[in-house]
Design a protein that fits this description.
It is a single chain. By secondary structure, the protein is of the alpha+beta class. It has two domains: 233 residues, ATPase, nucleotide binding domain (Nucleotidyltransferase, domain 5); 152 residues, Nucleotidyltransferase, domain 5 (2-Layer Sandwich). The chain contains 14 helices and 23 strands. A seven-stranded mixed beta sheet has the order 17-18-16-15-21-22-23, sandwiched between helices. 54% of the residues are buried. GO terms for molecular function: ATP binding; glycerol kinase activity. InterPro entries: ATPase_NBD (IPR043129), Carb_kinase_FGGY (IPR000577), Carb_kinase_FGGY_CS (IPR018483), FGGY_C (IPR018485), FGGY_N (IPR018484). This is ATP:glycerol 3-phosphotransferase.
């Protein structure tokens, strides 16, 4: 007996077959081809996204003979598309969370910022769902517009639903009542009657019936949530102050703040992590929009040979960089800002530039931890996952700048493990979150080697870079 855990992410889709004791029996992966054209554009074709799911699942199933009892789904959170509700056909490209073409729609609604923050926990920004929905509706007049999870679930089961953790990333969901808000929807000219039904994260959604996945026909889809809180769940961040950061396409820092939503006063987002067994957990989060994509930029421009070569880079030698290639999320919320680099002399070369950009990822995450501390939440250990955690250089710099202990999750697929645990709970009512609390130990631990004064001095200088980029972006 086994679970299939699907992680439909930005750069591709992973599928894991997970056995009864939590062991990974097999896996599949299919990449997504993203288009980054004109400034602010980030999208992919809906067919490519769907086929990546089908391919990843079939690869995973080919590697295991276990009977599949349930499928769990994690999604990108803030990515959307238009589609025909009668047959599931896509009517637009998938607009990826990084896309900032709706920035002007956010500017037009800035007078509502305080109200929106107080109800939704979110800053009005094109990163979130509502402005992208309005932007897309201006261009596609037919069909429904939803987050990608609703479309995927509809194709798999025929149900028109979204889970509450995904809904909390839309700017349309009231954190306090855990329901769609007519007042928030009115700000965007949207009708809550068009929105999918809300379900809790441990719901049994329906039986899979799509002809592309005959091997799973009749298996229940059980358990759905956003990818980042799925990783929070996998890394057992069940108590207030427990935090994780995923270093993937971007870097996403989430801190559990307990059963009551706390609205940030320092530029962070507040969202619902999950509602499981009728119990809710909320989190503060901040985002580095380009982490692995910043590393890929270094590779594409021949400043770095490969991600594995990060650990061979020299010291930055006084060079500093802010990798804001897709603007800045929390705590600055400046979608039009740019990446920047400073401190170059004739003695510097490719290696120092590349190292400075890598260090800049760690600096952004450290800045987010500072905002969390300013909001009154103490984080002493940071649990981390994602491909870039393989870099000792980046992880040690993260410990040095953040002045916290870094614990590396031992599995490369934290989100999949989290949604696998969720699907297990959805289908086994006797299980609770606490049953997964002691299921892993760090693969590596990094302790700060810098003094607090040295870390603060570095960050004080580094913060002038995104500030300069913000100014130049608005000239």
């Amino acid at each position: 007996m086994a679970i299939v855990a699907i992680d439909q992410g930005t750069s591709g889709t992973k599928a894991l077959v997970i056995g009864d004791s939590g062991e990974v029996l097999s896996r599949g992966y299919a990449p997504l081809e993203l288009q980054h054209g004109a400034p602010g554009v980030s999208e992919c074709t809906a067919d490519n996204l769907w086929q990546s799911i089908v391919i990843a699942i079939k690869q995973a199933l080919a590697g295991s003979t276990e009977k599949i009892t349930a499928v769990g789904l994690a999604n990108q959170g803030e990515s959307i598309l238009a589609w025909d509700k009668s047959n599931g056909d896509a009517l637009s490209q998938v607009i990826i969370w990084q896309d900032s073409r709706s920035a002007s729609l956010c500017d037009e609604r800035s007078a509502h910022s305080a109200f929106v923050l107080s109800r939704s926990g979110l800053t009005i920004d094109p990163y979130f769902v509502a402005p992208k929905m309005v932007w897309l509706r201006e261009r596609v007049k037919t069909g429904v517009i939803t987050t990608t999870d609703t479309w995927i679930i509809a194709k798999l089961t025929g149900k028109f639903v979204t889970d509450v953790s995904t809904a909390s990333r839309t700017l349309l969901f009231d954190l306090h009542t855990r329901s769609w808000s007519t007042e928030l929807a009115d700000i965007w000219g949207l009708d809550v009657g068009d929105f999918p039904e809300l379900i809790n994260n441990d719901a049994v959604i329906g039986e899979i019936c799509h002809p592309d996945l005959e091997q799973l026909r009749g298996v229940v889809l059980a358990g759905a949530m956003v990818d980042q809180p799925a990783a929070l769940l996998a890394e057992n961040c069940f108590n207030v102050g427990q935090a994780k950061c995923t270093y993937g396409t971007g870097a996403f820092l989430l801190t559990n703040i307990g059963a009551v939503p706390k609205i940030s006063k320092h530029g962070l987002a507040t969202s619902l992590a999950w509602n499981i067994r009728g119990q809710s957990a909320y989190y503060l989060d901040g985002q580095v929009f380009t982490a692995a994509t910043a590393v890929q930029w270094l590779i594409d421009n021949e400043l770095l040979d490969s991600a594995e070569a990060i650990d061979s880079l020299p010291d930055a030698g006084g060079v500093m960089a802010a990798p804001g290639f897709a603007g800045y999320g929390a705590p600055l919320w400046k979608p039009r800002a740019t990446a920047s680099i400073a401190g170059l002399t004739l003695s510097h070369g490719k290696g120092e530039i590349a190292r400075a950009m890598v260090d800049g990822i760690a600096a952004q995450v450290a800045d987010l931890l500072g905002a969390i501390a300013a909001d009154g939440v103490s984080v002493t250990h940071l649990r981390v996952d994602g491909g870039l955690t393989q870099s000792h250089t980046l992880m040690q710099m993260q410990a040095d700048l953040a002045q916290v202990e870094i614990e590396v999750y031992p599995h490369p697929d934290a989100t999949s493990i989290g949604v696998g645990n969720l699907a297990t709970m959805a289908t086994q009512s006797a299980l609770n979150l606490g049953d997964f609390a002691s299921s892993w130990k760090p693969a590596h631990t990094y302790s700060p080697a810098w003094s607090t004064d040295r870390a603060q001095s570095y960050l004080s200088k580094w913060r002038t870079l995104p500030a300069t980029a913000l100014e130049s972006a608005h000239e």
